[in-house]
Amino acid sequence: MTRAISLHDLSKTYPKQPAPAVDRFSLEIPPGEFLVLLGPSGCGKSTVLRMIAGLEDISSGELLLDGEYANNLAPGDRRMAMVFQNFALYPSMTSRQNIGFPLRFEMPGEDQNPRVEETARILGIEEILDRYPGQLSGGERQRVAMGRAISRHPSVFLMDEPLSNLDAKLRSHLRAEIARLTRGMGVTTVYVTHDQAEAMSLGDRVAVMRGGVLQQVGSPRDTYHLPVNVFVAAFIGTPRINLLQATVLAPLGGGMWIDFGRQRLGLPEPLSLDHQMLRIQQGRDIIVGLRSEAVRIAAPSSAHAGEVVLSGIVEHVEYQGHECLVHLNTGAKPAVVPELEAPRLPAQRTRSAARRAAAGPGGLGKLARKAAGRFPGLLQEPDGAGAVKVLDPPPADRAEQPTGDLVVRTGPDIRVRPGDRVPLLVDLAHLYVFDNTGRRICPAPAEQPRLE
Ligand SMILES: Nc1ncnc2c1ncn2[C@@H]1O[C@H](COP(=O)(O)OP(=O)(O)OP(=O)(O)O)[C@@H](O)[C@H]1O
Ligand SMILES: [Mg+2]
């Protein structure tokens, strides 16, 4: 049996905290769905999960399980199993006893061994059933913890970063296992992570949170291709989407350009409906988003319809085996999303940027302050905790160099070297424009379900 979970305007305010940890969170999770809650540290993911589990009181709003009001249902009556990051196994019990432990209450007086062995078979851990946690590897311990959750045949799985203590290889292996298991069992699953790759690979849908507020919920494909705002665009995808500050130029005589400061990108005429809408942005700051695969390095003569040309100077080529990531300067100014980590700073600039960050908010550069004024919703002073959130001006010896920052994905055989100036073909079908509040305006969000 699996259950539908409905969250209606769910909020949580902790005592003595001015802002709610979770703010009017609404979501319908149909039976059997694998839903991932994704967002940066502190955005309220665990709090949502704990309210669903009944481990945290709900300050306001409603939790429904299969349509029934469940705000006050005791945790034990919810038939949910939780797997945490810090999975606690009883050290003095074998794996068999650990997995069987919750069953003592679920099926008192019955032999738990068949259920334990069935669970162990599903997880491939029959061999380690009679070992103690101290004799197990991290991955094996996590599987036993999963076993303890599975053996109860729960109607809902709640998983809070269950893999984050494991190394990368094991994580990806167990990730596949979790997907196989939960799908096989058809159990509604809510899975918390701050790792976007994990979210994309596991979720039927991904719900992206920021500061306690749900930003967007959709399939991994939609959250990648149609991010509702600059935060979602920047949070999802590796390498991170290129975000550049720009303005729209649409002179009376006709034509329209996106102006990046040192370069302009001419939009082809007749203008598409989406591009016509950009006219109202004239005179305002916008942010242009270009994923690394939306730009090609090629000879301008090879431009196809729907592509426009910029140019950039190669800074650095990252060889990845199956592809290369080429870091370029285009002369544009990068836009910064404050909750996320440091913007990509060219290697030459990182030291001074780190020094500024270490100096705390007082060390903010003039440029950053100016930028913060222009993008009040996006750029804030750094918290002084070490995260570099400032746009750092280039050192004097590079002052004449463009300050732009663009990463382009290419084939592995690209022959470019640092210092080369290369033409860049921009695929207009994959050019995003965000307004100065960070909301996506191009492609127009008309048919998107909008969440405020
Ligand atoms: N018991 C508590 N009392 C006061 N504030 C709390 C409590 N638990 C969480 N918070 C605050 O609520 C906010 C959301 O916390 P939560 O643990 O849900 O974040 P999270 O998204 O799970 O973060 P992480 O990825 O770091 O686990 C944070 O600002 C946190 O400091
Ligand atoms: Mg958490």
From TrEMBL:
Keywords: ATP-binding, Nucleotide-binding, Transport. It comes from the Bacteria. SMART domains: AAA. Residues 5-236 form the ABC transporter domain. PROSITE patterns: ABC_TRANSPORTER_1, ABC_TRANSPORTER_2. The keyword DNA-binding does not apply. InterPro entries: AAA+_ATPase, ABC_transporter-like_ATP-bd, ABC_transporter-like_CS, ABC_transpr_MalK/UgpC-like, Mo/tungstate-bd_C_term_dom, P-loop_NTPase, Transp-assoc_OB_typ2. Gene3D superfamilies: 2.40.50.100, P-loop containing nucleotide triphosphate hydrolases. GO terms for molecular function: ATP binding. This is ABC transporter ATP-binding protein. It comes from Streptomyces fildesensis.
